[in-house]
Amino acid sequence: MAKTTYYVPIGPIHPALKEPIRVEAEVEGEKIVKVDVKRGFAHRGIEYMGMKRNAIQTLYLSERICGICSISHPYAFVIGSEKALGIEAPPRAQYIRTIIAELERIHSHILWLGVIAHEIGFDSLLFWTWKGREKVLDILEAITGNRINYSMYMIGGVRRDLKESHIRVLKDMITYYWEFTEHMKEVFLSDPVYKARTRGVAQVSKDVALKLNLVGPTARAAGLRMDIRQDIPYDAYADIDVKAVVPQDIVGEARGDAYDVTMVRIYEIEQSLDIIEYCIDNLPEGKILAIPNYIALLNKIKKTEGEGIGAHEAPRGEVVHYFRYDGTRDGPAVWKVIAPSYNNINSWGYCLLGAEVADIPVVVAYIDPCMCCNDRVAVVKDSTGKILDYSILHRKAVEKTRALEKELGVMK
Amino acid sequence: MTPETIFYAVGMPIIGVFLGLVYKGIDRRVSARMTSRIGPPIRQPFWDVGKLLLKETIVPANAVKWIFNAMPILALASSMTLLLYIPFGIIKAPLEGYGDLVVILYLLTLQALAMAIGGFASGSPFSSVGAQREMVLMMSYEMPFAIVITGFALIYKSFSLSTIASTPVWTIVGPLGGIGIFLLLIAFLLVTPAELAKLPFDIAEAETEIAEGMLAEYSGRNLALFYLSDAVRGFAMMAIEVVLFIPFTLSYLFGLNLSGATLYIVEALWFLFKVLVFYVSAVTLVRTSFARFRIEQASRLFWVYVNIIGLLGLLLIWLEVM
């Protein structure tokens, strides 16, 4: 009897996916024998928009690149801008920035833990983790005024100051989350069903992780000691000796599967709590903006010619922003964003080959994918397979207009 | 055609659907409370069915049309027939003497089979994968279920449910057989979520993996029929468990002397309460505290562990009877 393979299309719209991406799999019974990942369904042209605006507008635009790690893009943006402009944020502002970034890491990791629980069908855990996440969101709202898009950072500092009452609430939160992470370790790491569903799924060895260019917790779970906060320290991280969280230090060996990623993320929450505690204990006094007047800031940008690279360790991995100011406009002449999911999605094809259909959601979710961070340029091919660039598309548009004019009889 | 027959033919399905949907609503409510949510009102399943009945029924272009449309009816019919074999408290089963536990096993299988065939007939890859999983799962859980039924047949020398319901099983077995029956109860409770396609064994309808599996292409009236058959099957399965394992009447437990209509009403309410206790403990609690297994893990669980538990119980009962 001949073996039959099914063609299982997943996406661009699928219950397991919150954002559009397409995975085309050939399935033989329960085993995947061929897989193809297509992306490019959420291309919004944000970089192009940013080059049409001034730098402060672009800063708020960069916050909208991603919904969950919404502070990472502005963070990389302000670091890169400050390098290009040659200004430095006051120490207090640097510490406040670090606190916000770490608070966001906590909420992003807890969100991911809920998502992975949902993907393996453990909905109770999803509700429970997201209930615990509300506390950090409330704190973020108390400090910045918003739950998700904080609008907190500014080139050369932050826009809001931390008050004494905030610090008191932060201390309460830290004790709450120490208990919460203890509980989470119990629920996730020692639960037999969770272990059975994630052990050995999406396994990436150290060499493969290097070849696939993985970043963030995904790479750290494979045993690579890479963390922007450790390698290229910035802001308050320079004062703290941040060490990359790797499974070798926790359990002695790194397998690089979904279970290890879970472990890395839970322990990173604890690391974030330590960093926040250090920051609020050693918060320097002083002002929070290097150039309080925004008009003066824009004028400075207008006169500046230079380039800068800002890198920040987002919850998902490294975010890199490249800038060039050419001294003619008050906005960036070139703005290039590199988001972590772009690297991490490379692992899908590798992990899905030979996996089971039941593992697809786990493989898709374990990198915490963010499609909006992902799409850079859409290459459009016409039916002959020829790549259409700007000049051809323009010529086609002109031809169409001419044909329409001829049809309507308005040709000159 | 006696009036009784007409009542059973018309009344039992209505009662069964009503009770099944009420239990589904209670299940959802309790599950929500357990996960610190408010949850839907108890009458939400009724609204769901009403909405589905109003919706357009779409048949996919590459489906086998008549099988696709016939299977929901078959599923509902088999679960309705199931109700007629179950003694309702102290009321005797309508079809008593025409069938027994073996028929019940067959009807439960038929319903799962109808879903699987409907999935195959719908021609979607998701449904095909789901139906394959359902077949594998059926092969896994039917054996422990059969073991449980065999154990009861050993004790009573009969497959009839009414015989089993008339004398509680705990009163006629010794200590060895008591342990055996308890092991069978554990095996049966483990089979229940798989039989009802609930977590952790809703592998065939995994929403995040294969987009609801067998039901991926179903919509409108057909989906409503499947929903109803699922609700009725849930109630029937729990009723079977109550009849097998805790058939104690209220009068027997508390030594009450009731007669006439009061007796029937009180006993019916007591029976429904027992069903609710089983429903919450075997479905809701398990559903909210487990993740979904992979298909090979579930198969191993049933073929190895549950079978060992069941066979051990059977062995003890056999020793007792010998």
Automatic annotation (TrEMBL), chain A:
Protein name in the entry: Membrane-bound hydrogenase MBH 2, subunit Mbh2L (NiFe hydrogenase catalytic subunit)
PANTHER family linked: FORMATE HYDROGENLYASE SUBUNIT 5-RELATED, HYDROGENASE-4 COMPONENT G
Cofactor: Fe cation; Ni(2+)
Binding locations of Ni(2+): C66, C69, C370
Organism of origin: Thermococcus sibiricus
Pfam families recorded: Complex1_49kDa, NiFeSe_Hases
Cross-referenced InterPro entries: ComplexI_49kDa-like (IPR052197), NADH_Q_OxRdtase_suD (IPR001135), Ni-dep_hyd_lsu (IPR001501), Ni-dep_hyd_lsu_Ni_BS (IPR018194), NiFe-Hase_large (IPR029014)
Binding site for Fe cation: C69, C373
Residues given in the record as Mg(2+) binding sites: E47, V337
Keyword terms: Iron, Magnesium, Metal-binding, Nickel, Oxidoreductase
Entries under PROSITE patterns matching the protein: NI_HGENASE_L_1
GO MF annotation, one: quinone binding
Domain NADH-quinone oxidoreductase subunit D, residue spans: 120-376
SUPFAM superfamilies (alphabetical): HydB/Nqo4-like
From TrEMBL, chain B:
Keywords assigned by UniProt, alphabetized: Membrane, Transmembrane, Transmembrane helix
Cell location: Membrane
Domain of life: Archaea
InterPro entries: ComplexI_Subunit1, NADH_UbQ_OxRdtase_su1/FPO, NADH_UbQ_OxRdtase_su1_CS
Keyword Transmembrane helix among record annotations: yes
Transmembrane segments: 6-26, 73-91, 103-123, 135-156, 168-191, 235-256, 268-290, 302-319
Keyword Membrane attached: yes
Record's bilayer topology term: Multi-pass membrane protein
CC terms in the record's Gene Ontology section: plasma membrane
Pfam families according to UniProt: NADHdh (PF00146)
Name listed for the protein in its UniProt record: Membrane-bound hydrogenase MBH 2, subunit Mbh2M (Hydrogenase subunit)
